[in-house]
């Protein structure tokens, strides 16, 4: 284990990971040039990483889940604020400085910020990012991947989430029965305990995407499974129209032609809905093209939106009817 932490730290930056990687080193390098200097770094790999800088606390954990690693990091932390970031993300230089400003409000217990796709990511990873950024693909949750207007939130992903340690401990940390989804449960617990959660666009990190198509869709399917399960067991933050629409779209695609066999007018309705969706998909392509100025990337992303909706919708339905989720 590396040297003991400073005694004057405010932020404990907690990075769960499996192994050392180029992304992890990129993250650490970006942290090292933060404009706010009162922090410590705690890295939690499965096995020891040989060449980490001396001033980083390293806690090898064995093969356990990210939520368990984050809880363990919190136990060893010296700071009053826990700054959770994924090992495939790296922060803006003013990440901690801006978060410190937001936490001046004592009623705020957690702060989240956008995970923006790096401009130098490979094309298929940038296409994955465009899916999340588009209005049709990201819906009302685009602020999680784009720097948008500050707002109050009640659910935020742990790839860029900072939480007061006292409040984190008060609710018992992450519920490690869920992955992914443990961050949704944590935010729900913090809100139920009376805390306020703030989104601020300047608490910004850059987050590498899983490329289209297979890695992206595997992640999307897991998101759907857990969001569907949460929609049933924790409907307060998950039973919302934005999460439901992909499943309704899948059901409509499948059931429309079947119902049309018994009710002729249904076929016209089905064709009309599919046509409207096609128009929205085209509009999204133009929107993504204007942002990326890359015809090929935008075209892959347009296809990505379609299959993302289908895969997520199927996963959501599966999760909704699943009584328990396996890790």
Instruction: State the CATH architecture of the largest domain.
Output: Alpha-Beta Complex
Provide the structure class: alpha/beta
How many helices does DSSP assign?
12
Shape: globular
Strand content: 5-15%
Which parts are unreliable, with pLDDT below 50 for 5 consecutive residues or more?
Answer: 1-5
Structure, described:
The chain has 327 residues and is of the alpha/beta class. It folds into two domains: 157 residues, Spore Coat Polysaccharide Biosynthesis Protein SpsA, Chain A; 100 residues, no CATH class. It is 50% helix and 13% strand. The chain has twelve helices and eleven strands. The strands form two sheets. An eight-stranded mixed β-sheet has the order 3-2-1-4-9-6-10-8, sandwiched between helices. A three-stranded mixed β-sheet has the order 5-11-7. Helix 8 runs parallel beside helix 12. It is globular.
